[in-house]
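FAQ: What does a multi-protein file look like?

Like this. Sequence, then tokens, then the next protein.
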Amino acid sequence: MKLSKEVRKKKRKLSIQKIFNIVSVVFIISCILFYGIRFIKLYKENYTIDKISHIGDTIKDDNQDNTNFKNINGDYYFYGKEVNNYVLYSNLLWRIIKVSKDNTVTLSLDNSITSLAKGTNKKFEETNLYTWLNYTNKNNTGTLEKSLNDARKYLTYTNACIDSITDTKNITCKQTTSDAYITIPSLNDYVNTGSSDSFLNNEEYYYLTNNEKESTSWCVDKDGKISTSDGTDILGVKPVITIKNTVQVTNGNGNKENPYTFEESSSLIGSYVKLNNDIWRIYKEEDNLVKLSLDSYLTINNEEIKYKYSNNNYYHNDTVSGSLAYYLNKTYLNNLKYKSIIEETDFSNGIYNNTNNYDYNETQNTKIKTKITVLSIGDIIINHTNTNYFLSSGISRDSNMIYTMQNDFKLYTKVSTTNLKIVPVIAIKKDLLTAGNGTKDSPYEVQYE
């Protein structure tokens, strides 16, 4: 039976429509598969790059075959003396303690940065160490935190063990504090990184967060042994910070010569400044000024100068002939080619003892106005290799005993008439720092008449 012309036409239309629909479906499926696979591939590639660049992942990836990088209860600790776990932050060299489960990275400064007494009968968060390290709503707090570069951008709260420990063979971490950006090492940190065989043992005295009991605190001595103190010893403060898990590494591989870095711009703290042939380091920013400490001992004609502090007490008096203050502000200053840029400003010159509860604030708040002096208790100490030089802090108003800085960061006193090497400090205007970038290889340089 022959189909009518209209039926044949209608059937042909249906066949074409069917073919078009099939082709369209195939085309759409092909597009979905092609672009879907491409999207997934690109997503995975971008995700992998982003993941690797995060500091915690980078460190774990770089050390996956490192026998000195150990998993302890889910946290990865660096263990031993010779480990490549260096980080450069705020022009200061840090060591990686651990990468935590949440991929945050806990660091300890390679060397102590100041020396203070912890105080008796105090938990870490109640001590002057805590307020020197961390900014609070009280006056004169956060000396270190305010000096670090963009601390709130890069740092998160550090989880520190504060258990009272009576037996070092039974160290627990049941009590913690996590309300501070900066702490100090705990017994747990010290043991998990190798104790005396740890990179945290660098021949310095310093306090730990834990107390033995109410009247004694745990500390590390210069031989790396765990010891105790009643809190009146003036020992090193070795800061511990925690880097956010979102921070990305920008350079470095963890070697001392090529540490990990992550900052978008550098800070002034620790920067090198070249004045004539002298190299200074910035240890404090203060309004429109930067305060500098000489990076070596005071040297004239290749000879290290020694001088007594005073004839009878700690007071810095640059009008009394024969005192260190007079020598620095008359003889030494007048021989400096850059004396015109040195500003007269306030420097600390107080006492530090049990009568003021070893409060660095009281020591720092006693000021003298001068052009050149020496470091005080409570100042940031940049160069840890200089040793046996006077600070501008006394033990009492009537005593001729003056505190001296040692390279093991335990402070001792000496009679003010003793001749010692000198590490002077000065202040210059911040806007003079133009040439250079503040590194050791390219220090800031200034113009002067």
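And here is the next protein:
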Amino acid sequence: MQEKPWKPWALLAPSITAVFLLLVIPVCFIVVYSFWLRAPTGADIPAFQFGNYQKFFADFFYPGILLRTIRVSLETVALCLVMGYIPAYFFYRSETRHKAALLLLIMLPFWISFIIRTLSWINILGDTGLFNHALMRIGIISEPLGLLYNEGAVLLGLIQYLLPFMILNVYVSLEGIDKNLLEAARSLGCTEWQAFREVTLPLSLPGVSAGCLLVFVLTAGTYLPPMILGGPGNDMIANLIFKRVIGTLDWPFGSAISVILLGLLCVIIYTYNRYLGISQIFKSFQGN
């Protein structure tokens, strides 16, 4: 019996409707707002003009924040990749029966509020925090180190937030690699390092690229770590949007900045899809 063509669409209708109402329509509103005018009285005037975009690029202050966002995002991706691949590879090669418990520990931070996790760094890195208190107690330093409100503190906050995403993406990709391939490589004379370089690493690249893309996008759009842990010169583009929309209620300019950020991320995702393929992300989540 031939299946009716409308049945798949009927099953997809709830999810498509949710995406349309909760994502597509709000983004369309933001795009429309980005062309409006901000009156001197504070009112938003419906219009179609590019003054908000010209204002963004007229002064290097705003593009400078965008460039800082890209740089911090790339730094976060690099650090998460280095710090995340090692434990993911350990889980892949480990034969312990406690592997499930170890993976649960990786996901444990997701059970705690992101705000609480970010604020906890103040008690660790602050002048009277755990780190400075320990160093002063054992006599290594005589006065507290300035560990907070700088880019290093922002990177720490971003890494503790995003590292589990990288570990899980890489681990799932590694778990899909047949370990018999490594045994075959070693039987042909490869050392442990050569087997990793020639077999494991290339086959794990879909998970690596998916983790890098996810970490970059999430870093570019986050504002809590820079707001809580960063200083006056450590704002990222999401902080600028927050200040414009919430602080000054300048919805047209804030919307224009949001569209610029969205356009940048779309270009990055398009480039990724052009050379690697979005399908690689889904392949990295396939099991054995």
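Q: Is there any per-entry metadata?
A: Some entries carry free-text notes. For the entry above: Residues 284-288 have pLDDT under 50 and may be disordered.
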